[in-house]
Amino acid sequence: MKNCIVIWIIVFCGNHALSQAEFGPVFIGYFGNLGYQPGLKIGTQIELKSCKKHAEESVVNKESVVNKESVVNKESVVNKESVVNKSFYLSPQAGFYVSQNVHTGYLINADFGYMRTKGNNLNYSAISIGSGLFIQSQITELSINLSDGSKKNTRENWAWYLSTLNFEFGKAITQNLGWYGKLSGGYKMGRSQGNAMVLFAELGTRIRLFSKKSKT
């Protein structure tokens, strides 16, 4: 009975969150283990909750006025309105990388994060925590045929639970196109194989396929 109540609460909260959610951009980019073992990653971002904060910034404008006898520097203070958008999001993702002649890594995970966007959605930064499945297709035996030079390898698939802490930053080039960079550090845990730290780096493109809803 208790399990049924817990499941019902989770389903209710999940449905409520998704009903308020907004699908954001799709991103695709370079995904590297330790930064240099190359791969590819793709995902999307679902905005769960957001709010906007309006603030005024004082900007000092300097100008030089040239007279017949001298140059006079004048300063004027102009108040400009800035908009800061804060949001919580969920980001499902999938990726892989290749360590040549050693192993291939596959990742399926989701990030839950907080994003802060400033200045008409041009620049943003985000911090998130990730959770998912990490699979490593390890080459355990490599043989070379001396007659024709062909290679044959034997693989074993190992799996870990992976948790990460991520920092992301980027900038919009147009309303629907932008770039991003991301650094992730975490820990993989498994029963059959040893636990270990992991480090990933990403650099790619964010593409908004659907127009963003206007909120009042």
Short description:
By secondary structure, this protein is mainly beta.
- Distance between the first and last residues' Cα: 42 Å
* Mean pLDDT across every amino acid position: 80
Enumerate the strands of the largest sheet in spatial order, edge to edge or round the barrel. Answer: 1-2-3-4-5-6-7-8
Order of helices and strands: HEEEEEEEE
Task: Work out the number of β strands.
Answer: 8
The chain-level structural class is mainly beta
Roughly what fraction of the amino acids lie in strands?
over 45%
Q: Would you mind describing this structure in some detail?
A:
The chain is mainly beta. It is built from 1 helix and 8 strands, in the order αββββββββ. It has an 8-stranded antiparallel beta barrel with strand order 1-2-3-4-5-6-7-8. The two termini are 42 Å apart. The model is unreliable at 2-19 (pLDDT under 50).
Summarize the SSE layout with pairings.
Elements: H1 2-19, E1 22-33, E2 39-66, E3 71-99, E4 103-118, E5 123-144, E6 151-172, E7 177-189, E8 196-207
Antiparallel strand pairs: 1-2, 1-8, 2-3, 3-4, 4-5, 5-6, 6-7, 7-8
